[in-house]
Specification:
CATH architecture of the largest domain: Alpha-Beta Complex
CATH superfamily of the largest domain: 2-enoyl-CoA Hydratase, Chain A, domain 1
Helix content: 40-55%
Number of domains: 2
Strand order of the largest sheet: 1-2-3-5-7-10
Number of helices: 11
Distance between the termini: 24 Å
Bound molecules: octanoyl-coenzyme A
Number of strands: 10
Order of helices and strands: EEHEEHHEEHEEHHEHEHHHH
Length: 268
């Protein structure tokens, strides 16, 4: 099957309908080189275009080992890039972040250890972030003479507010888990990686009893509305609110409520 073990730098395993995506370069703290990004692009495109949420109901993203989620883009690979190569590399990383946002199913980033630079950016492209108590976030690019290039200058402001994002990006400082929780970057902390994975699976178990179609459309409207004025966002919401009335899931969900039984959603 497409999803298992055909990759060099990532693994993807589906267990009970949840796709476990692991960035698998533990010795390099799961740093993102172009192979990782290309493999992520292939996998995410497949989930969007072929699977479409039929077998994979949610995606849990984590990093191999205990030390890092992703310690950033691969600095060794970047150091000799020219302007054109940097643009290509940045575009690939940005495309991967957009693909995470376009996945029709919910995506939880489970951040174990370092989520720096491109790692923080990948986590922010997921729907929300769970983290271990020892997780460390940050956008340290300015320490290397770089700027965030996989969406950090845009998404961090939207998550934590522009001025706080500026303080984090200009200083390049570490943001520890407790602070990440306080400023809304992480939504829940766990004592260990195992407890975090179990917590994410529990959250998926709640989400997957709901209409997959309604979650998919909520995600589209929330991500799409993020860049719009409230008025335009409300227009988008209204269009989709009306459109779900033609879905099987809406008919089933409301019917089940009236009949006082659990709904049987198909995702259509
Ligand atoms: N890239 C490449 N290799 C890395 C990276 C990285 N980002 N992070 C760690 N590694 C490697 C180390 O080189 C080391 O390899 P080796 O064993 O072969 O020497 C191995 O992983 C283990 O790392 P350390 O020995 O450094 O582990 P420590 O526990 O001492 O330190 C740290 C852990 C603090 C996380 C440290 O590794 C570190 O500072 N890493 C870099 C963090 C960073 O600056 N990240 C941001 C990178 S820039 C970025 O992400 C930009 C994104 C947008 C790019 C757009 C391009 C156009």
């Amino acid at each position: 099957m497409f999803i298992t073990n055909n990759y060099e730098t990532i693994t993807f395993e589906v267990k009970e309908g949840i796709g476990h995506l692991t960035i698998n370069r533990e010795k390099k703290l799961n740093a993102l080189n172009s192979t990782v990004l290309s493999e992520l692009k292939t996998l995410l495109n497949h989930l969007i275009e072929e699977d479409k949420g039929q077998t994979v109901k949610g995606v849990l993203v984590t990093g191999a080992g205990e030390k890092a989620f992703i310690a950033g883009a691969d600095i060794a690979q970047m150091q000799d890039m020219n302007v054109e190569e940097a643009r290509e590399f940045g575009a690939l990383g940005q495309e991967v972040t957009l693909l995470f946002e376009r996945l029709p199913m919910p995506v939880i980033a489970c951040v174990n250890g370092f989520a720096l630079g491109g790692g923080c950016e990948m986590a922010m492209a997921c729907d929300f972030i769970y983290a271990t108590e020892t997780a460390v976030f940050g956008q340290p690019e300015v320490k290397l003479g770089l700027i965030p290039g996989f969406g950090g200058t845009q998404r961090l402001s939207k998550v934590v507010g522009r001025n706080r994002a500026k303080e984090i990006i200009y200083t390049g400082r570490n943001v520890k888990a407790e602070e990440a929780l306080r400023i809304g970057l992480a939504v829940k902390l766990f004592a260990s990686k195992d407890e975090m994975i179990a917590g994410a699976l529990k959250t998926f178990s709640f989400m997957t009893t709901n209409s997959p179609n309604a979650i998919k459309i909520s995600k589209q409207v929330m991500n799409g509305g993020n860049d719009l004025t409230v008025e335009k966002g409300l227009g988008l919401e209204l269009d989709q609110f009306a459109a779900v009335f033609s879905s099987e899931d809406m008919k089933e969900g409301t019917k089940a409520f009236v009949e006082k039984r659990a709904p049987n959603f198909t995702g259509n």
